[in-house]
Amino acid sequence: MKRFTIALVTAGMMATSSLALAAEKSFNVLGQPLATGLIQKNKEQPFFENFAENTGLAIDANYKPIDVTGIKSEETLRVLKNGLFDIVSIRTAQAARDEVFLLGQDLVGLNPTYEKARQVYDAYKPHFAARLQEKFDAKLLGLWPFGPQVLFCKPEISGLADLKGKKVRVYDQNLSQFIESIGATPVPIGFSEVQQALSRGVTECAITGASSANTAGWPEVTEYFMPIGFQVGFNGYAINMKTWNKLSPEEQEKMQAAFDKLVDDIWVYSEELFEDALRCNVGKEPCTTVTKYNMKEVPVNEEDLKIVADAVKTVSFPTWSETCEKNYPGCTELWKKVLGPLTGIE
C-alpha cells in the first residue's frame, strides 16, 4: 500500500512538473482586432486560448488582439521580425504598406467569389510565403478571407457612378487607386474609426466585409448597402523563423496541421457569415449571426460588375506592378506567370 501511495505521489509530481514546463513555454501572439467581429471572436481567439490542446504541443499562447496593444496594423510584420511577437495575425492590406508584393493576390477585381479567391490563394501562396520569409524572417502558416469587401453609403446611391465626387473610406493603396479611377475621393481610415467617421461626415461611404461592418455598427450610420465585392480581404498567420526553428520537425508538423485546420475552418465560416450578413443588413431572413438592420439594398448591375472585373487589367494590376517593381524587381513577370492563367493577363 505504501509503495502504491508513493507511486501515486511520484506520478502526481511528474504530471505537475510536466504542466509547469508546458506553462513555461509560451508564444506571444498578436491577433485580429476585437472590432472586426465574429471570426476573431469565434474562431481565432478560442484557437489560441486553447493552443496546447489544438496543436497537441506543450506550448501556451499569450494572445492579445491588436487593438488592445497600441500597435498599428501596418506594424504587424515589423513586430514579428523583431521578435516582439512569436506569431501574428497578418492584416495583409495594411502589412502590404511594407511589402506591396503581398497585396498581389487581392487586387481590385481579382477575387469576385470565394471559389476564385481560393484558386488565387493556392497559386500565389508559395510566392507570398517566400517573400514573407525573405523580407520579414517569418514563415507563413496560412491565409483566409474576411469575404467580399462591399459598399456602405450614407447618401443615396444607385450604382458606382453615384460615387463620383463622394468621399469613400478605403484600407489599401490598390483600392484607393480604383476609387480615384471612378471619380471618388479615397479616405484611408482605420477600421475602428470608420463608424464615427461616417457618423460625422468625414467620409460618406465606406468599404469592408458585410459581417464586420454589421458587428461594428456601420448600418446604424449608413442607409444604402451595395453587395459588390471589390476585394476579399486576405488575412492569416505567420510565425517568427527563430521561433519556428526552435521546434523539432515533429512539433513543426503538428503546428502546421493545426493551422491548416484553423484556416480551412475559417474559409468555410467566412462564407457562412458573409451570406448571412447580406440578409441581415437589409432585414431579410434567416438572420442568425449578426444584427438585423433595414438598410436599402442597391442592386448590382452588369455594368458595375464589369467595371470592377475590368479593373484588374485597367487599374489595379498596372498600378500595383509599378509600385512593386520599385522594391521587388521582377515581381510583375512573377505575378503574370502565377496568376496570368487565371486572369488572362500576359
Automatic annotation (TrEMBL):
<dbReference type="InterPro" id="IPR038404">
    <property type="entry name" value="TRAP_DctP_sf"/>
</dbReference>
<protein>
    <submittedName>
        <fullName>TRAP-type C4-dicarboxylate transport system, substrate-binding protein</fullName>
    </submittedName>
</protein>
<dbReference type="GO" id="GO:0055085">
    <property type="term" value="P:transmembrane transport"/>
</dbReference>
<keyword id="KW-0732">Signal</keyword>
<dbReference type="Pfam" id="PF03480">
    <property type="entry name" value="DctP"/>
</dbReference>
<feature type="signal peptide">
    <location>
        <begin position="1"/>
        <end position="22"/>
    </location>
</feature>
<dbReference type="InterPro" id="IPR018389">
    <property type="entry name" value="DctP_fam"/>
</dbReference>
